Amino acid sequence: MTRKAALTRAQFEERFFGVLRWFVIVFLALITVIPFYYMVLLSLKPIDALLLDPGSLWISAKDFTFSTYQDVLRSTDAGGQGFLKFLLNSALVSLGTVVLTLVAAVPGSYAVSRLKFFGHRQVSALFLAVYMFPATLLAVPLFVIFAKVGLSSSLVGLAIVYVAQTVPVSIYMLKNYLVTIPASIEEAAALDGCSRLQTVRKVILPLALPSLMATGLYVFMIAWNEFLFALLFLAADPDKWTVSLGLAQLSNGIEVPKTVLMAGSVVLTIPVVLLFFAAERLLTEGLTSGADKS
Amino acid sequence: MTTAPAGAPQRRDTDPRSTDRPASPGRRPMTASRRANRAGLAFVSPTFLVVLVVVVLPIAWTVLLAFQKAKLVDIQGMGLFGNWSLDNFAQVFDSAGFWSSLWTTLLYTAGSTLGSVALGLVAALALRRPFKGRGLLRAAMLLPYVAPVVAVAFVWEVALSPQYGVVNDWGRRLFGWDDPIAFLSTREYEVHLLGLHFDIPLALLTVIVFECWRYFPFAFLFILARLQAVPDTLEEAALVDGATMTQRFRHVLLPQLMPVIALLCVLRFIMTFNKFDDVYLLTGGGAGTDVAAVRVYDFLTARYDVGAAAAQALTLAVVLMILLGLYFKFFGNKVQEEA
């Protein structure tokens, strides 16, 4: 009797969650894809079409236009918004941040994963403590310090701040990968007469290439998307604006149509999304490897 | 072996290596552990230097600034140690908005943390077993997390707009809304439900929903990775014992997931507590969404009052540390046991 009741409960749950699962999957697909579809959709129609029928989820052929993109990308001299320049600035800052972060994080993560040195347990805790403090707290003194050394409103100064923001996670990601490389490989290299630096360069780095790419990608994403420090450091100098900042400033202009704003959003989003889809698996594995150990 | 006294001469005589490579006087040959120590410190120093210069020193300076009267204009010529006072803190605690802003921050942080982790958990459970198109969906689901905050904030702003937003248009068509709802600028929205009237903080709820939407992929990623590491045999055993699906989740999966969920909650809590850009871009801190980080920014840019901004930011950091301390005191051990 009870056994039978239990069975039906199990069957009921099996069926109920089997159906619910598909509802959840469809729901998740909708909430993640529709905002981006909406963004692209609005960027491709003139503002009149949007105001006339705000609920429409498609574009008629006669409305279809690329003029919003022309407006956003054209240089300010030609009456556009100059986003090509902003894209270049963002690319410079982001790539610079990636290179500098990896240069700082590779030795650091190697040391944390392999070498027992004084304070090696405290290092990760110290770096994670960076996140405890609001970025707004850091922004004030950094702004003043950079003004003194002449780095304010410079892309280099911005990149240095980003390096400090991304180094802790980079060390964490790289470390999780490095500990999986067997120590015997290094010992073999040492027997062959490699110094430690040579071992890192010739043996560890090639082996850690996937992890390096994942970390680099993550850093690029953070630097490309960052907004607060760009706002604080560069707001006064439109020549140095990154795309995020340019877009935010564009939205403050009253005369700028929302469809142009959406074109700017697409331009800002595309590089990071393309990169992400090219290396999605790499990134997700890089981020989550070792998650079960924590 | 490390007990040899420094520069022990008899040892140097017998050690052939030290004759090939004459050590400086008084220096003993390095042991493996000392070499590792040196190399470790050397390898870590670039990272350490960056963090020291760009994080630790500025924070230390902020602490000093919080106790001084400092406006942005005269800060350039100021020495490190000016006139110390607690004026900034008095000003922060006395100002009308402080306590309400702290309360808003807590609601915002707790709501966003729980919401994003819960949604991430549901998503991970739904996508646990393979199905056609799972890889594509998994990648697509990470979009809100990967996309630049400025871009997604504007999409929400446009979509929720009372004048030209798609949400209000469809709301009127499908649910018969009489008036368009200004999601991002309504402090209190009156709801009639079963003859009862509620005032809900609509703008705050909207930014919480935004935050859940933006960060659930992060929780999803970590929980899914952990789920896939749960050995099948555990669940099979429970199945053989007649456990139903909810029982298997409650007694088998959840204990396995608890450590990663706890970690995610702590991480998300810290990040959201200090979050600036999301709320700033969506509402500018208006309509009851004046979270603390946005207030600090306002102190800085509207009044150029560096001292007050530093005091406020420091207060926040202290509140956060107290909250985390309480958390680890009461739940830290439990989490570790389950790990």
TrEMBL record, chain A:
It is a multi-pass membrane protein. Residues 87-279 form the ABC transmembrane type-1 domain. The keyword Transmembrane helix applies. It comes from the Bacteria. One of its GO terms (cellular component) is plasma membrane. Pfam families: BPD_transp_1 (PF00528). The chain crosses the membrane at residues 20-40, 91-113, 125-147, 153-174, 203-224, 260-279. It is found in: Cell membrane. Keywords: Cell membrane, Membrane, Transmembrane, Transmembrane helix, Transport. GO terms for biological process: transmembrane transport. Belongs to the binding-protein-dependent transport system permease family. This is Putative integral membrane binding protein dependent transport protein. It comes from Streptomyces ambofaciens (strain ATCC 23877 / 3486 / DSM 40053 / JCM 4204 / NBRC 12836 / NRRL B-2516).
TrEMBL record, chain B:
GO terms for biological process: transmembrane transport. The keyword Membrane applies. Residues 1-33 are annotated as: Disordered. InterPro entries: MetI-like, MetI-like_sf, UgpAE/MalFG_permease. It is found in: Cell membrane. GO terms for cellular component: plasma membrane. SUPFAM superfamilies: MetI-like. Residues 10-20 have a biased composition (Basic and acidic residues). Residues 102-327 form the ABC transmembrane type-1 domain. Pfam families: BPD_transp_1. Keywords: Cell membrane, Membrane, Transmembrane, Transmembrane helix, Transport. Coiled coil: none annotated. It is a multi-pass membrane protein. The chain crosses the membrane at residues 40-64, 106-127, 139-159, 202-224, 252-271, 306-328. Belongs to the binding-protein-dependent transport system permease family. This is Putative integral membrane binding protein dependent transport protein. The lineage of its organism: Bacteria, Bacillati, Actinomycetota, Actinomycetes, Kitasatosporales.
